[in-house]
Amino acid sequence: MNFGKFITYEGIDGSGKTTQAKMLYEYLIGLGFDVILTREPGGTRFAEAVRKILLSHNDFAISPKAELMLYLAARAQLVDEVILPALKSGKWVISDRFFDSSVAYQGFARGLDPEEVMKTCLFATGGLKPDLTFFLDVSPETAAERMAKSGKKPDRLEAESREFTEKVRAGYLWIAGREPERFVIINGEGSIESVFERIKSRIKEII
Fold first, then answer.
1. With contact defined as beta carbons under 8 Å apart, do 99 and 118 qualify?
2. Predicted TM-score of the model (pTM)
């Protein structure tokens, strides 16, 4: 069976990962690849419903463990319904966030055990891991400036403190230290085009 490639994008909010994921999608389509672009949380009707709960400014609190479980449920559905069938049919899948987000956000920033978070994530995905993950690394200051310029109202996680964002970034760097072959740090401070050139050079190695 000829599996497709699974590429994910990670980063703090405002890092530019969503833009870069779309650019890679369009680039690969232009090369003739069959590609699916999805996001987390989301990508299925169930997961999009969970997304509203997770990212809305609710009038109730969500504990770190409950938050993690909601992400895991959305992720399990996305893998079973969209990602795995696509990969099995030979398609490439690009996802704006995947389980590394849980390690960084719920593990490092919310204070759960990162090792335990990773284990539960792998249970939710049935052991599925990305072939390649691009971590768009920018400073919290750059990310905050970009979000302010966008004019978009921050969601529940985007509205978290600078300290929270620093912990998320530390979590991503921890993952990079553990899995340097899969988890690639990309300097996201430059122009959109220069960042994409860095990503494209790495993608060409696996095409």
1. yes
2. 0.94
Q: What's the CA gap between 185 and 172, in Å, rounded?
A: 9
**191 CB neighbour count, 10 Å cutoff:** 8
Q: How confident is the prediction for the chain on average, in pLDDT? A: 95
With tokens 């997770």, the residue in question is 54
User: What domains are there in the chain, each with its CATH number?
Assistant: 6-203 (3.40.50.300)
H/E element, 148: helix 140-150
Q: Do 16 and 104 form a contact (C-beta atoms < 8 A)?
A: no
Helix (H, G, I), strand (E, B) or coil at 129: coil
Distance CA 71, CA 97 (A): 11
Residues whose CB falls within 8 Å of the CB of residue 33, separated by 6 or more in sequence, listed in order: 92
